[in-house]
Predict the 3D structure of the following.
Amino acid sequence: MDMVLRNIVKKQLLWISLAAISMFFASMLSAFIVEKADVVNWKEFILPNYFLFSTIIIIISSFLLFFIKPQLKKEKPIFGLVFTVLILGILFSYFQIKGWQQLTSQGIYLTGVGSNISGSFLYILTLTHLLHLVGGLVGLCISTIKSKQNLYSINNYLGLELTAIYWHFLTVLWVILFAFLKFY
Amino acid sequence: MSEHHKENFITKYIFSMDHKMIAKQFLLTGMFMAVVGMLMSAIFRVQLANPGETSILYNLLPSAWLNDSGGLNPDKYLALVTMHGTILVFWVLTAGLSGTFANFLIPLQIGARDMASGFLNMLSYWFFFIATVVLMSSLFVESGPASGGWTIYPPLSALPQAIPGSGAGMTLWLISITLFVVGSLLGGLNYIVTILNLRTIGMTMKRLPLTIWALLITAILGVLSFPVLLSCGLLLVFDRSFGTSFYLSDIIINGEVLHNEGGSPILFEHLFWFLGHPEVYIILLPALGIVSEVIAVNSRKPIFGYKAMVGALLLIAFLSFIVWGHHMFMTGMNPFLGSVFTFTTLLIAIPSAVKVFNYLATLWRGNIRFTPAMLFAIGTVSAFITGGLTGIILGDSALDINVHDTYFVVGHFHIVMGLSAIYGMFAGVYHWFPKMYGRMMNKNLGYIHFWGTFICAYGVFFPMHFLGLAGLPRRYYSNSAFPMFDGLSDINDLITFFALAGALVQVIFLFNFFYSIFKGTKASQNPWESNTLEWTTPVERIHGNWPGDLPVVKRWAYDYSKPGAKEDFILQTEPLKDGEIDH
Amino acid sequence: MNEKIYQMTNILIFIIVILVIAALVQIVRVSELLSEIKNQDVNEVTDNDNNTQGLLFLIIGFGFLVFVVWQMITWNHLLLPPASSVHGTQIDLLMKVSMGLIITVFFITSPLLFYFVYKYRGKKSNKAYFLSHNNKLEVVWTVIPTIALTALIIFGLKTWDNAMNVEVTESTQFIEVYAQQYNWTARYSGLDNKLGRANYKLVKGQNTLGVDMSDVNSADDKMAREVHLVVNEPVLLKFRSQDVIHSAYLPHFRVQMNCVPGITTQFGFTPNKTTDQMKESEGEDFEYVLLCNKICGASHFNMQMKFIVETQEEYDIWIASQDNLEKKLLTQK
């Protein structure tokens, strides 16, 4: 299989996986919407600000990724860019965890006698998103190391492209989840 | 890809990345599980014919499953029914059918060296293998395997106190199905990307054999619906093991008041059936795709209405996403919603009918060659007519009131899946065995296998419609608790007789399959005189499929008995003659 | 079982299996050798084969159809008797019409299939007719099923609406049916025809249904282990479950509804044949019965409650003999 075809194939494999992952989250969101309609049993609470911070962070990180292609075209180094995105990704995770800590201190738990289905859903949605994000962090780690070693060029940066596409997906997914959790 | 990697035993037979070997791995695992699933059904059919009594077949079970007088324990009856359903729906008819034929046929029929990613493909099998090991291990835990039906509705499947199998057995079931789904998704990704990108020169979408269309659409169905089972299962895992209340509320079990509040078991049913319904089409469509191929080749005629057949496949696939509620008519859902699902469900009968008529038109004025594969393909059409028609009763919500969860349903889904889809699988095995193993299966044993199966299978499942219309519920350990069912025991005995006879007939197939791998007569290049590309590869099968360049396609796949041609078939690689128009 | 017999039986079975496999091997080898002698390919499908198999499809195919007819005739008397409820009669009509349709289609397409494969059984000297498609035909056999199904859908939706959207009038009696592993309990709403509130947290001792005795409507409620209904009087059954999903299936009335913990479901109907009337036509042993129809545990197969349809007078006598909850729960501590 030649390089051009290989690139197309690998990207399509990724896009279809993203379709599958989307269905996973879409079904949980539908469950969320249906359960929320049952107002009697749904305990409302305020979403900690940490989740707002993490949303901003991940949007910035995705934005930065758009500079990769222009930089590569000008044959400029991209290590700094990729490394920053990695750091922002880790920061996102940190804020997510802080958000959970805040929730538990408010008495909103994932499970157990004191828990409510509203809290459970929030934890499950953010937890599964974060688990998928870990995959993205792994990709960013590898990309960081490879960009430090200047292994990428405008004609050959498939691994980074795939990581970037996946990362953008995680951002869009998070924005949708956050919008639901905050405003619905 | 003429890469010369040295193959040792491990890379050739165990961790193979060659799609043909992976296909055979799926086939053999699927066949093994089919035997396990069939034995389970033989055991519980014996229980139904002789409730409470002991039987020689129970020797196959762990002794803890039997009571002091050697009879089967009621909860273990439910365990058998659950595992039978799980194994046959997922392991045999999904992995065994799609996994085998998608892997085997896609690169061969589209003219590719292998799948888009041999590595992902290999992973897809090994996830499946580990899922199999985990599922089988659940048979040996003390509290028994999952016992809440293959549909595992909570709260029953969430509470070990409600039935022992909902303890460790159910946990293992959930782990197993998660691995299974991941494996299926990895496979599906490959199938789609390979078909879209690796078709050889001249192989346009319009020249694809219908089998490939069916496998493509099945893969898309899988990618969009299996993840929902994962989310459904994830929420169940949390309810079972971590105290959440997604599906549970207001429960007192064995005197204990549970803390769960706010959850809904109906939510589970929605999520489950959102996969569950497309799942049965993931099972059926590859079988129909295989049958299209086998009928065309053996009628020596083009498949009638190629475009209509593709359209029907697409319509069935689309509609399959909006009918899931017909499994839930009696849950107390808003009646309006029930009406919507009745409407969409009955619509799906239309493309299904179109396919049957096209098969009949293909047979009309054909020159039919009765290979064992052809017998099974015809059997598929017969069963699809029979089973599909009773779907019209079940899809009508008002009629479902009295037949829901009765033997009428059991008869229906067995005839469409346990006959129609399995016959499609048999047809595929008999038809492509020469390509898989370079040898022919014995024809006469094939004939005996078909007729024995055809007669026994209808003998088992057709009478069930009457049991259902008599009001007999499914998943009953015994039918002797209600005097109103006493008159049905003769029918039950008849069904059990045919079930055991049918199970025995399969021994002929197993013998034929394994004997022929080693001692079958050597196959010729194109034993069925078929047009499709797989028959242009060497009989001895090589890595990369074609020794030289990839074939170039010049025509569609169905030029059988074309007027003016020398023979009654024309390979897809054969260039068009002057003045000849491609279909 | 005697251990020795058990072991002997297993050994015997093992030997039989080995012998069967050996026999099959020999049969196959013999047929292969015979073909070699005749200089034929043992696996080639000959015109003879086509004749045989085509004929078999005709015979066994039609045999199957005869078998179907035989089943329909022989087992017709085992099916449920005509519905004993008002909405049920319409369901039975829909069933007859739908069955009529699918049986007709079955007895047209199946014989066609078996006949075609017989008629067009292959001969080396024959050639098939190359016809790849016919768009007009596709339209015809798309439109006709569409029309038939549309008619069926309309009739079906009307019947469904009739069954599900039951009009609740003054005379509708409310009865709760409570499901648990593995029995049913009924709760009558008493003279006020209002069921008292209930909550699973209040289940205690004799109060097995968790009725809230502080609700004024609860005092006159009555619990029972069988359900008596007055003929031709509408009733609305309210379903609850204590533990897992059960399903209340009353086949003779064409009634079914899941009982789901955490939710109250309902089904309203009007019985129109008394138990005595049914005994006359179906036999002395006849009883209306409620079965569980959703897998619920080990004794799922034996979860039943008797239903009796009787005259107003008979009912009045029976209901008077049942203690109300005030008496049952508050005076017995």
